[in-house]
Design a protein that fits this description.
Elements (H helix, E strand, L loop, with lengths): L3 H9 L5 H14 L2 H7 L1 E8 L3 E3 H5 L10 E9 L5 E9 L5 E10 L5 E11 L9 E4 L17 E3 L5 E7 L5 E8 L4 E9 L5
Parallel strand pairs: 1-6, 3-7
Antiparallel strand pairs: 1-2, 3-4, 4-5, 5-6, 8-9, 9-10, 10-11
Helix pairs in contact: 2-3
C-alpha cells in the first residue's frame, strides 16, 4: 500500500510532459473552476483571442467561473528538442454539446512545471477522437543550422529554435495559427489552424 504522504506528494508534483500538463489543466477546470484553472496554468504574459489577441490575465481578472467547465483533451503534442516548449492540439466539448478544437503553446518553467502562454481554437461540426495523443519531438540533429528567429509579439519558439509558432489576426477577428517542428534538415508544418471571423 502506498503511504498517503507519498500519494499527496505525487499529486502535487509538476507535470512531466506537456500532455500531462494539458490533462491536469483540464481536470483543474472541473474541480476549481474553468477560469480559475486558466489563470493558474498560464504565464503572466499569456495571450488569448477574444477575437483579437488579449492578455489572458487582464481578460480573466474579474471573470466568474461558469457553473460547468468545458471539457477538453489533447490529441497531439509537438515538443522542441530541448524539451522547453511544446504546442498541444486537441478537442473540446461544451456542456451544451457543441464541439471544437484548440491549440495551446506550453513553456517549461524554472521549477520544471509547465504553463501555457498562447491559447486559441474554434468550433467543429464533428468532435475530435479521444485516442491516446500523438507525441512528436523535434530532431536534435543540425540545430546549429537553424536560423535564429526574430521575436515579434505574434510569434515565438523554443530556446534551441527547433519549434516555432506564429499567429496572424485580421481586423475582423479571423486568424491563423501555425506551428513548425525541426526534422533535422528543415521545418515540418505540424499545425495550421484557420479560424473564421466571429459572426456579427
Amino acid at each position: 500500500m502506498i503511504p498517503l504522504l507519498l500519494m499527496l506528494a505525487a499529486a502535487d508534483a509538476p507535470a512531466r510532459t506537456p500532455v500531462e500538463a494539458e490533462r491536469a489543466f483540464a481536470a483543474d477546470a472541473k474541480t476549481i473552476g474553468q477560469w480559475t484553472a486558466f489563470r493558474k496554468w498560464s504565464t503572466d504574459d499569456a495571450v488569448m483571442f477574444v477575437p483579437q489577441p488579449t492578455k489572458a490575465h487582464e481578460f480573466l481578472k474579474d471573470r466568474n467561473d461558469p457553473p460547468k467547465a468545458i471539457d477538453w483533451w489533447p490529441t497531439a503534442s509537438y515538443i522542441s528538442c530541448d524539451g522547453k516548449q511544446a504546442v498541444n492540439t486537441g478537442g473540446w466539448r461544451r456542456p451544451d454539446g457543441s464541439v471544437g478544437f484548440f491549440s495551446t503553446v506550453w513553456q517549461r518553467q524554472r521549477d520544471r512545471s509547465w504553463k501555457w502562454t498562447v491559447d486559441g481554437g474554434d468550433g467543429l461540426t464533428k468532435s475530435r477522437d479521444r485516442s491516446e495523443p500523438k507525441v512528436v519531438r523535434a530532431s536534435c540533429r543540425g540545430i546549429q543550422q537553424v536560423i535564429p528567429l526574430s521575436q515579434p509579439s505574434n510569434q515565438g519558439g523554443s530556446p534551441d529554435r527547433t519549434l516555432f509558432w506564429r499567429y496572424e489576426v485580421k481586423p475582423d477577428g479571423a486568424r491563423q495559427f501555425q506551428a513548425f517542428l525541426w526534422n533535422g534538415s528543415t521545418f515540418d508544418p505540424v499545425i495550421d489552424d484557420t479560424i473564421a471571423a466571429p459572426a456579427k
